[in-house]
Amino acid sequence: MTHPTPRWVTLSFVAVAVLAIDQALKESVRSTFEPGEGVHLFGSYSIQHIQNPGVAGGGLQGNALPLAVLALMAMFLMYDFLARRGAGRVSLLLGFGLLIGGGLGNLVDRARLGIVTDPIRNGPNAFNVADIAIFTGGVIVLTVVIVSYLSTRLRARGQPTSKGA
Q: Any residues with CB less than 8 A from the CB of 136 and at least 6 apart, and which?
């Protein structure tokens, strides 16, 4: 008899994979290029060593530490909630794993270096694997929540009420 994989294992695997890929790319860029240097890929995309002292694409400079502490607390609460929750959907575990891994990727940079390395450049925008994971995870979680809400509402409409119809 096989036992199902515990939810926290799936969540942790996704988070650790995102963290590892994010940190490997950032370290590779930091060790290969000086700040501001890079290489053109295609179209408006390039790999470039960009140091981001703020958050949200370089905004909120000087206020990143309190936001990083809040993000860390939110990640631990999400992890705890999802690890303890009843049978979770794999899509939610994937989404929250991406959110947690991405958050940790940027948090590790900020704790180690005081900045976040954003090696992927598209025109004036710079971002990293952690940012992509956070965005994708957010979209997945939001989609699952909306679909779940709508399907619950549709099921409720299809069933007669207890007040006699």
A: 95, 98
CB 44 within 8 A of CB 122: yes
Domain ranges of the chain: 7-157
Would you call 39 helix, strand, or coil by DSSP?
strand
pTM above 0.85, yes or no: no
- CA distance linking residue 153 with residue 137, whole number of Å: 24
pLDDT tens across 92-116, in order?
Answer: 888 888 988 998 898 888 888 888 8
Instruction: Using the structure block, give the residue that is written with the tokens 């790999």.
Output: 47
> 3-state class of 122 per DSSP?
strand
What's phi and psi for 40, nearest 5 deg? -75, 135
Pick from 80, 95, 100, 102: nearest CA to 145: 95
Q: What number of other Cβ atoms are within 10 A of residue 82's Cβ?
A: 19
**How far, in Å, CA of 68 to CA of 107, rounded?**
6
How far apart (Å, rounded) are the C-alpha atoms in residues 83 and 80? Answer: 5
- Distance CA(115)–CA(50), nearest Å, equals 10
What secondary structure does DSSP assign to 76-136, as a single string? HHHHHHHHHSSS--HHHHHHHHHHHHHHHHHHHHHHHHSSEE--EEETTEEE-HHHHHHHH
Supply the residues annotated as catalytic.
118, 131
